[in-house]
Amino acid sequence: MGLFRSLLGWVLIVALAVSRIRQDLTSEQALSHDLTIALDQVRELKGLLRICAWCKKIRNDEDAWAQPEDYLSQHTHAEFTHGICPACKEKFLRER
User: Fold this and answer.
1) For the stretch 9-35, what's the b/e string if a residue is b when 16 or more beta carbons lie within 10 angstroms of its beta carbon?
2) Is there a contact between 67 and 59 (Cβ–Cβ < 8 Å)?
3) Distance in angstroms (rounded) separating the CA atoms of residues 20 and 26
4) Is residue 4 very low, low, confident or very high in pLDDT (cuts 50, 70, 90)?
5) Backbone φ, ψ for residue 64 (5° rounding)
């Protein structure tokens, strides 16, 4: 009877360990999947951007000048929306 209890105890310990390993593996697979999706959504700009010091347009690979929004939309997954910052709003209202 003592051998049976000892064996049963070991079987229970192994079953619990296997269950925990399965849970950890499932969690790791879910994290890996989420990371893969996140990395697919990232596009990185590297190097120097040639930007006009006056109008802030960006010179592209064809030596044409593009609006920053256009350039970044073409080279990243970023989308733009426009608003007006408080400083520009105040300047606009003063000029009117």
Assistant:
1) eeeeeeeeeeeeeeeeeeeeeeeeeee
2) no
3) 10
4) confident
5) -100, 155
CA atoms within 13 A on the CB side of 34: 6
Instruction: Give the HSE-up count for residue 78: Cα atoms under 13 Å, Cβ half-sphere.
Output: 14
Give the H or E element holding residue 10.
helix 2-41
Secondary structure of 12-70 as H, E, C letters: HHHHHHHHHHHHHHHHHHHHHHHHHHHHHHCCCCCCCCEECCCCCCEECCCCCEECHHH
C-alpha span between 66 and 53 (Å, rounded): 13
Q: What is the DSSP letter of 71?
A: H
pTM, 2 dp? 0.47
Over residues 6-58, the pLDDT tens digits come to 888 898 999 999 999 999 999 999 999 999 888 876 767 777 889 999 999 99
